[in-house]
């Protein structure tokens, strides 16, 4: 009976997929999880529920060929979901599909790096999918019809397996963190579909949650800071000298690899260590989320991530006022140079709104060539306006493959390869800092990571937003800031925008969620991602944290950042 063949083929293929996921090294070095026994059995049990539902359905609908097509399709979804987790720590969500799968004008140089770097595992995944279909065909040929009584028994067995598997989140060592990772992809998509078409009602404890987030719950737009913009921009325009603002956004910059208080770090990152002599260093900074597009939202828009989707890549544009838009209103010439094609994250619409000049050239798709291009551009840059210049690196993106002309080899060990990628990134930083100094202009320079990524995923927190994903370094150099100084506060990437306005003394309206780092105080630092949260500087209960996440999602969904 072919539904049995379908069920056994699913079970065979899924077991192999999970073994390839948990027993092979991750792209970032080391095993995917420290203890596979806390994930693989739970995944199998949960997925059995879906396999049983499919087999039950095809027991009623006699369509063996369609069942075979469904087997191939769903096996592909499970394999793609596993690869997303391996490379990005994210599920195969609607947001991911719309941005990275349906986006045909993507960055094939970056995709090529990832594919070549993981080709052996990609091939294993495809082979397992093909093998599952082959097993189904073989079993189908050997199978025969069953008596009616056996068919009824089989239906009952499938129904029992479906109930047991789909309810396993409640009875098989329940863990919310783990369920985020092991939930069958079908269930994950159903949950996303329900959220996409739900009314998204205001949480019952919205006011308390907004206050916890740092907003004003009595206002319709709780994070909108109203100011006398006309007077502020007029006063700023009359200043004789306005500093350039340079942001060096470093790809996948793990905070644990960037602590310049360690002599070994300085040996690997000499230019950053030299820069630290003239800057304020925050060794405990955190990104608002991951992947890179989330870090960009934190830096440029001064907001936290949506817990269920990537805000910047959403087709529904928020009513916002970003840092580059504010600086453009203040007379700055805004420019961004990126080593990765902006279409990869659907960023061109934002870049067109934010920057006077946005440049991506495939010839400069590594850190050093891009740094050399910026050094050349600075010699020709407009002299009548202050600059807001953004550099977005790429070489330290997984799989950390260095270009052939870098002078470095590409060792097999991902950890060693990552160290070399950071050394290469540091070389580019040195080129940029020298070029900035050579202009003779007063500059505020910020060096920050877009996000991190754990070397070894932390069991129950796998795929959530724990420290391994968000811990980044942050340096700020300005004439009115301490030099060669370390600030041990835990701070957010989203604090960069209000801090820069504070340094400039530009008091204008904005919706930035954090306070300036010049204020000597500590506040809760939030990260929302994968329908989960992490909070620093707070001992908030899980219920309070959940409320904050839901309230923040509500604010973004209802477009309540600014009037």
What does this 3D model show about the protein?
There is one protein chain. With 563 residues, the protein is of the alpha/beta class. It is built from 22 helices and 11 strands. It has helices at residues 2-23, 40-60, 64-88, 94-101, 108-117, 119-142, 148-166, 168-171, 176-182, 185-196, 206-213, 229-237, 263-268, 270-276, 292-301, 323-329, 348-354, 367-380, 414-438, 467-470, 496-504, 542-557, and strands at residues 244-250, 280-286, 333-338, 357-359, 387-392, 443-449, 471-477, 485-486, 491-492, 525-529, 532-536. The strands form 2 sheets. Strands 1, 2, 3, 4, 5, 6, 7, 8 and 9 form a 9-stranded mixed beta sheet that branches. A hairpin with a 2-residue loop joins strand 10 and strand 11 (532-536). Helix 1 (2-23) packs antiparallel against helix 2 (40-60), helix 11 (206-213) packs across helix 22 (542-557) and helix 14 (270-276) crosses helix 19. It is globular and about 90 Å long. The model has no long low-confidence stretch (mean pLDDT 90).
Structure described in brief:
The protein has 563 residues and is α/β, with parallel strands linked by helices.
Looking at this protein, list some descriptive labels.
two-stranded antiparallel ribbon; 22 helices; 11 strands
Count of distinct strands: 11
The largest sheet is: 9 strands, mixed
Global mean pLDDT:
90
Please identify the structural class as seen in this structure. Answer: alpha/beta
Radius of gyration: 26 Å
Q: In percent, how helical is the residue content?
A: 40-55%
Q: Which band does the percent of strand residues land in?
A: 5-15%
Shape: globular
Distance between the termini: 62 Å
The number of helical elements comes to: 22
């Amino acid at each position: 009976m072919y539904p049995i063949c379908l069920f056994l083929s699913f079970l065979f293929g899924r077991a192999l997929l999970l073994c390839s996921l948990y027993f092979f090294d991750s792209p970032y070095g080391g095993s995917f999880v420290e203890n596979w026994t806390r994930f693989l059995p739970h995944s199998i049990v949960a997925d059995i529920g879906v396999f049983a539902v499919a087999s039950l359905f095809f027991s009623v609908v006699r369509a063996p060929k369609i069942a075979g097509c469904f087997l191939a399709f769903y096996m592909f979804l499970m394999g793609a979901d596993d690869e997303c987790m391996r490379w990005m720590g994210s599920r195969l969500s609607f947001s991911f599909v719309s941005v990275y799968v349906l986006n045909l004008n993507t960055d094939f140089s970056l995709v090529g790096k990832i594919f070549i770097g993981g080709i052996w595992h990609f091939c294993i995944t495809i082979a397992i999918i093909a093998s599952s279909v082959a097993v189904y065909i073989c079993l189908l040929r050997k199978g025969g019809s069953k008596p009616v009584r056996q068919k009824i028994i089989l239906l009952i067995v499938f129904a029992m397996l479906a109930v047991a598997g789909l309810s396993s989140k409640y009875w098989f060592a329940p863990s919310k963190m783990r369920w985020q990772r092991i939930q069958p992809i079908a269930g994950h998509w159903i949950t996303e579909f329900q959220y996409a078409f739900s009314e998204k009602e205001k949480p019952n404890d919205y006011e308390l949650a907004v206050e916890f987030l740092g907003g004003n719950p009595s206002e319709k737009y709780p994070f909108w800071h109203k100011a006398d913009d006309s007077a502020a921009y007029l006063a700023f325009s009359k200043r004789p000298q306005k500093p350039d603002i340079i942001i060096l956004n470093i790809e996948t910059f793990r905070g644990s690899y960037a602590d310049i208080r360690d002599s070994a770090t300085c040996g690997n990152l000499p230019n950053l260590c030299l820069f630290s002599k003239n800057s304020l260093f925050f060794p405990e900074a955190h990104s608002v989320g991951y992947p890179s597009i989330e870090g960009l939202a934190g830096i440029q828009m001064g907001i936290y991530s949506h817990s269920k989707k990537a805000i910047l890549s959403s087709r529904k544009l928020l009513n916002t006022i970003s840092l580059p838009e504010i600086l453009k209103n203040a007379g700055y010439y805004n420019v961004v140079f990126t080593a990765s094609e902006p279409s990869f994250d659907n960023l061109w619409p934002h870049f067109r709104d934010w920057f006077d000049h946005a440049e991506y050239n495939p010839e400069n798709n590594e850190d050093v060539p891009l740094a050399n291009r910026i050094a050349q551009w600075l010699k020709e840059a407009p002299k009548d306006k202050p600059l807001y210049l953004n550099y977005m690196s790429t070489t330290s993106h997984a799989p950390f493959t260095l270009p052939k002309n870098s002078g470095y080899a590409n060792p097999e060990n991902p950890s060693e390869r990552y160290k070399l990628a950071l050394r290469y990134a540091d070389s580019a930083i040195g080129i940029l800092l020298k070029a900035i100094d050579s202009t003779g202009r007063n500059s505020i320079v910020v060096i920050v990571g877009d996000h991190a990524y754990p070397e070894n995923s932390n069991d129950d927190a796998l795929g959530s937003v724990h420290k391994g994903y968000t811990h980044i370094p942050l340096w700020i150099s300005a004439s009115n800031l301490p030099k060669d100084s370390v600030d041990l506060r835990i701070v957010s990437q989203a604090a960069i925008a209000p801090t820069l306005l504070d340094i400039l003394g530009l008091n204008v309206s904005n919706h930035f969620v954090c306070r300036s780092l010049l204020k000597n105080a500590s506040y809760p630092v939030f990260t929302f991602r994968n329908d989960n949260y992490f909070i620093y500087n707070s001992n908030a209960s899980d219920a309070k944290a959940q409320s904050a996440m839901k309230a923040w999602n509500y604010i973004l969904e209802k477009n309540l950042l600014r009037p």
